[in-house]
Structures are given as C-alpha cells and as structure tokens.
Amino acid sequence: SVLVRLFAPFLPFITEEVYSWAFAKETGLPSVHVAPWPGAQDFADVPAAADPESFDLAVAALTVINKAKTEALVSTGRVVESVTLAANEATLTRLAPVIQSVVQAARAQSHGTAVKAELADGTFEVAEITFAPKAGE
Q1: What is the DSSP letter of 8?
Q2: What whole-number distance in Å separates Cα of residue 61 and Cα of residue 72?
Q3: Is 97 within 8 Å of 47 (Cβ atoms)?
Q4: What is the rounded CA–CA span in Å between residue 50 and residue 83?
Q5: What is the pLDDT of residues 61-107, one digit of tens each?
Q6: H helices within the chain, ranges in order?
Q7: Are 86 and 119 in contact (CB under 8 A)?
Q8: Is the N or the C terminus of the chain less surrounded, counting Cβ atoms within 10 Å?
C-alpha cells in the first residue's frame, strides 16, 4: 500500500489499477489518489525505522561483502555459501535487526558474526567467506 501510494504521482493509471485490486476494499477509499500520503505510522514496524543508523550499517556490511567478492574475482551476484562478518559488539548489536536483509542482498545461504573489538564503530570486516560453485561447474 505504501509503495503504491508513493508511486501514484508518477504512475497514476497503473497505481490506480493495483490499488483497486488490493487496497480499495481494505481501506474503504475508492482511489489511490484520495488515500492519505504515507507517514511515519506506516513505517513504525520497519526495523530500520527503530534505529536510523541501521540502514547505514546494512549498507556498510553489504559493501564489505561485495568487496570480498570483488577481491576473490567473483561476480557480486554470485551465491555465498557462508559469510562471517566481524565488527565490534555495539555495531553487531545495532546491525542485528537488519542482518537478514543484508544476508539476502548478498545472496548468502548462511551467515555468522564475530566480535572484533578493535574495529571502529560502524565498520565491518569479512572474517570468512565461501562461495557456492558457479552455475554449470
């Protein structure tokens, strides 16, 4: 519903159709164009909304995973069998609510974390990474 309302000014006909299929009956409003603009209450249950820094942490974690892929000369789209992210304890605690999103974006099948106290707050290292065989291998 939120995405449909956000896209409505740019894709008015498509969003109107999607809204009529999925949200008009639920909301009691006949058109996406009379529905209220998304506000803070629409994002209250999103884990990243609880800690504004969690998005930045997720980006930093994904960046070091992609860097490890690049250094291993594999595609960033390559499936990761296992990855272990290292960071200080406070950073890992703040990353916890969004780590599943990072793992999914990295295409990792399993993950772990390791405490490395000497790392600066908000920074990560890939302690260990193994890649799935390339398709067709």
Answers
A1: T
A2: 17
A3: yes
A4: 26
A5: 999 999 999 999 999 889 999 999 999 999 999 999 999 999 999 99
A6: 2-7, 12-22, 24-27, 47-50, 54-71, 89-95, 99-105
A7: yes
A8: C
